Amino acid sequence: MTFDELDLSDDILDALDAMHFSECTPIQEQAIPAVLEGRDLIAVAQTGTGKTAAYLLPVIDRLASQPEPDAINCIVMSPTRELAQQIDRQMEGFSYFLPVNSVAIYGGTDGATFAQQQRGLKMGADVVIATPGRLLAHMSMGYVDLSKVQVLILDEADRMLDMGFYDDIMQIVAATPATRQTLMFSATMPPKIKQMAQKILNHPAEVKIAVSRPADSIDQSAVVCHERQKTPILRHLFETKAGKRVIVFAASKLKVKELNRELRRAGYKSAEMHSDLEQGRRDEVMQDFRSARIDVLVATDILARGIDIDDIALVVNYDVPREAEDYVHRIGRTARAGAGGSAVTLVGERDQQRFAGIEEFLGKPVRREDIPAEFGSLPEFRPDGRSGDGGGRKRRGGASDKRRRSRGKKAVASEQSAQASEGASRPEQAAAEGGQPKKKRRHRGGRRHRGGKPQTPPSQA
Fold it and tell me: How far apart are alpha carbons 317 and 330 in whole angstroms?
């Protein structure tokens, strides 16, 4: 279907023509008519399917013909500053021939940018594109009026919930009219997203676009290995595949920090990217990566969506992602703009079943990477969840083993009884010799721990 076949205004069609957009993507073809009808919408579609245009085009069309003057007419919430900036750029292009304005609201800015955001909110920008936390910060200052919002849009809703924005989102939703139109876009549909949809959407239309497979230009491979082998294998991949323009995805912020420290100690120009970093530091890291001052970026899934860097040579999944959709998002950072690229997944023993699910989603097995023998034996791939390589000791069993354990227990009991008898006779012996029983010395610090100080398990990110 072409955009000309949709009920969009001539001004929007002119803007699309100037941007060389003619054919609708599947998500645009199904979502735009429902939004134009004024219905609430829940859409499941991954990054890169054209979902931004799917909600911006009909909303711009509506606001151009039915604006609420000097008021905030639409809110678009996104999980990250980077995605908010990207939406804002597309908004400028789509609304080029229309009297619809917008302002992007996100953190990590200087005083001048903050004042610009403040001015846009006070004057009532037609479309406010914001991260939930920063919008809530402005709302707390008392000059943000959301009582005339006509459309509320949640982009990458699953990601926002993963980042802990649920309470912020619900607080913002409560400040908008109940008569608003609500559009929710998500790459996945876990139970918590369904629960939120039931609370904030009213008889929504549903659109679900199947997650596309990774581009054929991505050379996908995997290494089934022990956890202790992952970092040496990672360094081997740097040497044999690419030492520059590499993104390494890890499962948690804690692991990202630890792995980055290891790589820097080994002499690599690496940096970390996760939600604990201040926005200014995140911008600095991304700029260093784009300008090749950093070769390796170790990141959580915060970098899996909404980041456009065209020349990533290698993506490594240090940990297997939780969902097949996350796998597609991660490895989609390479082989962009028609270029080639490689994606390697390190599959630990506990992640084999999860990786088997990804292969099932892909519809084919992922090629196993050849690793030199110097890294030691690799575990067998057992997607049924059983132990991998059988390289540990074999468990003994049978009646003879039971008898052996029984004899061991009797020997220990006999020894303990002898020690108790000997200990009981010592006070009498000391009294007969005219001395006092020797007192046991107590360790001043309390109980002594064998093998050094007790270790406190690290907190999870």
Answer: 8
- How much is the pTM? 0.63
pLDDT in tens, the chain (461 residues): 899 899 999 999 999 999 888 899 899 999 999 999 999 999 988 766 788 999 999 999 999 988 788 899 999 999 988 889 889 999 999 999 999 999 999 987 778 888 999 999 999 999 999 999 999 999 999 999 999 999 999 999 988 998 889 999 999 999 999 999 999 998 878 888 999 999 999 999 999 887 667 878 899 999 999 999 999 999 999 999 987 889 999 999 999 999 999 999 999 999 999 888 887 788 899 889 989 999 999 999 877 765 667 688 899 999 999 888 789 888 988 876 556 789 999 999 999 999 999 999 899 999 999 899 999 999 989 887 554 444 433 333 444 444 444 444 444 454 454 444 444 444 444 443 444 444 444 444 444 444 444 444 444 43
* Token digits of residue 28: 């645009």
Residue 245 to residue 168: CA distance in whole angstroms? 35
Over the range 265-291, which residues count as b (16 or more CB within 10 Å of their CB) and which as e? eeebebbbbbeebebeebebbbeebee
Size of the chain in residues: 461
Give dist(CA 207, CA 46) in Å, integer.
12
Query: Using CA atoms, how far apart are residues 273 and 461, in angstroms rounded to an integer?
Result: 13
Query: Shortest CA distance to 203 belongs to which of 51, 38, 58?
Result: 38
> Can you list the domains of the chain with their CATH numbers?
3-208 (3.40.50.300), 218-375 (3.40.50.300)
User: Rounded to an integer, what distance in angstroms lies between the CA atom of residue 263 and that of residue 247?
Assistant: 13
**Whole-angstrom Cα distance, residue 380 to residue 388?**
5
Between CA 300 and CA 312 the distance in angstroms is: 16
Count the Cβ atoms, other than its own, within 10 Å of residue 112. Answer: 8
Coil/strand/helix, residue 399: helix
What Cα–Cα distance (Å) separates residue 175 from each residue in 145, 168, 414? 8, 11, 75
Looking from the CA of 414 toward its CB, the CA atoms found within 13 Å total 6
